[in-house]
Write a structure and sequence with these properties.
- With 268 residues, this protein is an alpha/beta fold.
- The chain has one domain: Vaccinia Virus protein VP39 (Rossmann fold).
- Strands 3, 4, 5, 6, 7, 8, 9 and 10 form an 8-stranded mixed β-sheet that branches.
- α1 packs across α6 and α7 crosses α10.
- The longest helix has 20 residues.
- It is globular and about 50 Å long.
- It comes from Cytobacillus mangrovibacter.
- This is Arsenite methyltransferase.
């Protein structure tokens, strides 16, 4: 894929998430694509319900700043990150700051949480929430996950929620992740993986790319990319139960037949 094509994909993804960021969203309402006002069993599903289906607990959702949770994602990286007090955490594609705000109390005042996102409107939303709610150990940086605005060997844990699939250069993402992690640092990622080849018409659908479908990679491909970056102890575990959530992203295409959420972990 050429750099021009890569930029076209990034621009489309950025525009899509700009529109999401600019919407006024509360936990009681439907959110923006890929899960906007979707229905399960003919019932509108709220952001809180979507988040619970991803694996977030009611306790986690209770104290999140208003508007930070937009129901975006495909899992809960917090559940596998095993965050400790004093650690530095980096969230790839931090959006409105949802996972960053959850990580904040876990690492404490001696720790630090950095969110990186390429959409200015998301960064503004997240920064406003951090300031308004006095999250003093959280900061948000505008940038691409393929070119992280983060120093070498400065991060203990990298988390991410259904974002790496959106990158047209995943090898670069893992290379950058490896660069910024400390020795012994770890990945704790929720993302979608491809379980079987997508039909050609779905592969070429730019909107499905922004909707976390067309950009998904196979487990073998992701494993190889992570190995090339230098990671060890790589584990990618599909979650078949996630199909219930995924099937409402684009029901007309039966996307749950092609992609599934997975837990991805590795160590530098």
């Amino acid at each position: 894929m050429s750099e021009v094509q890569n930029d076209q994909i990034r621009n489309n993804v950025r525009q899509n998430y700009k529109e999401i960021a600019l919407r006024v969203v509360s936990s009681d309402n439907c959110c923006a694509p890929p899960s906007c006002c979707t229905t399960i069993d003919n019932q509108n599903i709220s952001i809180e319900e979507i988040s619970k289906k991803m694996g977030y607990t009611a306790e986690e959702l209770k104290n999140i700043p208003d508007g930070a949770n937009m129901g975006l994602g495909c899992g809960n990286p917090q559940a596998i990150a095993d965050l400790k007090e004093g650690e530095t955490v980096l969230d790839l594609g931090s959006g409105g700051g949802f996972d960053c705000f959850l990580a904040s109390p876990k690492v404490g005042s001696k720790g630090k949480v950095i969110g990186v996102d390429m959409t200015p409107e998301m960064i503004t939303k997240a920064r406003n929430n951090a300031e308004k709610n006095q999250f003093s150990n959280v900061e948000f940086r505008l940038g691409e996950i393929e070119n992280l605005p983060v120093a070498d060997s400065s991060v203990d844990v990298i988390i991410s929620n259904c974002v790496i699939n959106l990158s047209p250069n995943k090898r670069r993402v893992f290379t950058e992740a490896y660069r910024v992690l400390k020795e012994g640092g770890r990945l704790a990622i929720s993302d979608v993986v491809m379980t079987t080849d997508l039909p050609e018409e779905l592969q070429d659908d730019i909107q499905l790319y922004s909707g976390c479908i067309s950009g998904a990679s196979t487990i073998d491909n992701l494993t190889e990319l992570m190995k090339l970056a230098g990671f060890k102890n790589i584990s990618i575990t599909p979650k078949d139960e996630s199909k219930e959530l995924i099937k409402v992203w684009a029901p007309e295409h039966n996307v749950e037949e092609y992609v599934v959420s997975a837990i991805i972990t590795a160590v530098k």
